[in-house]
Amino acid sequence: MSYKNQLKLKYEIVEDWFERIKKQIPELEILPIIWSPLEKWYRNKIEFSFGVYISERENIESRRNIWFHKQWEFSKIVDIDSCWLISDKANSVFKYIKGLCYNSGLPVFDQKIHQWFFRHLVIREWVNTDQILVNLSVFEDSLKKTYNDKRNEFLDILQKDEFLKNNIRTFAITYNNWLADTVKSDKSESKILWWDWYIHELLILNEDQENKTESTFRISPFSFFQTNTFWAQKLFSEAQKMLWYVKWTILDLYCWTWTIWISLLKNWIWSDLVWIEIVEDAITDAKHNAKINWIENNCFFLAASSEKAFNTNPELKSKIKNLWAVIVDPPRDWLHKNLISFLWELKKELDFKLLYISCNPITMARDIQLLVENWFKINKLQPVDMFPQTHHIEVIWILY
Ligand SMILES: C[S@@+](CC[C@H](N)C(=O)[O-])C[C@H]1O[C@@H](n2cnc3c(N)ncnc32)[C@H](O)[C@@H]1O
């Protein structure tokens, strides 16, 4: 399907989802969809799986496959030659490492019997700093006797290889002997073969305009980062326009990599930020990123769940007495009912804007319906396409 038709279809899907809400709020306007600056080659992170079974040729087994899982299949791997979603550079790194793995003579992991070596290959590319991070995940338990020499030889090649050294900034190996089909687990251990655990990316907002800003982010192999960098830059510039400008305090309830507010605070240095995030490691990184962007004095960080944070930390209330905006960018689930009640209570006392960014318009539609029952008003929805060639759609909205 052409990209133009994909956008048309996605717009119709959003219209469909919000049909019911439009009955409740007839003046609600769905703005034209903001498209991704790149139709292909836009992902900065890709996770390939190694696997034994070739889906297209059911009866042929091979111990050398690395691609994507066939949809809904845990052990079948779809054969592709290169991936349209990542850049040429990331594709060349992918092909090269695939070749090294193949030539090593070490077997790929078999998801049916939970044995053998290669499990996943994660490639992350930072487009503004031209850095690539690779994380190769392996299962070591069943290898010790039979393949010891081959494994050591393979690790030695990785350490010395000129192509890898010239093209990859950080090479990590994750030893994951856990059964679940994930890159890391509670019991896995990651080691860096060279360079640092962290690499850095820039986000550049309002590139062609007077108020252009650049922010720097430190990212580790497992940190979340918006997966379409060009899109993130466009979206955050748009969010900035939607909020117009910020004075006083901003409360970010799902901050993770803090990318939005660090980018925006570069222009709004007079505001304060209260950050809440459930993953403690993310807060450690958030503090560091605030520091390298010179905004740490404006920030207060808390590792907690958004729906409980204000009950368990009553002193938080005093930090948001000058509240200007609240931002929520939750995972795919809808907002917890306690959080909705908290937002209702807060809105009764304070006049603030609520900026909601969602990667799941279905749960978002339900949340809007609830929020407008009490105190909140909405007049515009902004659909954005972060993931061309897939069915995913993001939507941003502001409630007054
Ligand atoms: C879509 S990401 C937000 C990304 C962020 N806005 C950014 O630009 O980097 C959702 C975040 O919500 C966090 N999270 C999930 N449940 C949470 C909860 N109950 N309270 C606080 N944070 C939560 C996740 O750890 C994740 O970092």
Radius of gyration: 23 Å
**CATH architecture descriptor of the largest domain:** 3-Layer(aba) Sandwich
State the major sheet.
8 strands, mixed
Strand percentage, roughly? Answer: 25-35%
Count helical runs: 12
Total separate domains: 2
Class from helix and strand fractions: alpha/beta
Poorly predicted segments? none
Distance between the termini: 37 Å
Describe this structure in words.
The chain has 400 residues and is α/β, with parallel strands linked by helices. It has two domains: 3-39 and 201-399, Vaccinia Virus protein VP39 (Rossmann fold); 45-195, OB fold (Dihydrolipoamide Acetyltransferase, E2P) (Beta Barrel). Helices cover 32% and strands 27% of the residues. The chain has twelve helices and 17 strands. Strands 1-16-17-15-14-11-12-13 form an eight-stranded mixed β-sheet, sandwiched between helices. Strands 2, 3, 4, 5, 6, 7 and 8 form a seven-stranded mixed β-sheet that branches. Strand 12, helix 8 (280-292) and strand 13 (299-303) form a beta-alpha-beta unit. The longest helix has 17 residues, at 88-104. It is globular and about 70 Å long. The protein starts with a helix and ends with a strand. The model has no long low-confidence stretch (mean pLDDT 85). Bound molecules: S-adenosylmethionine.
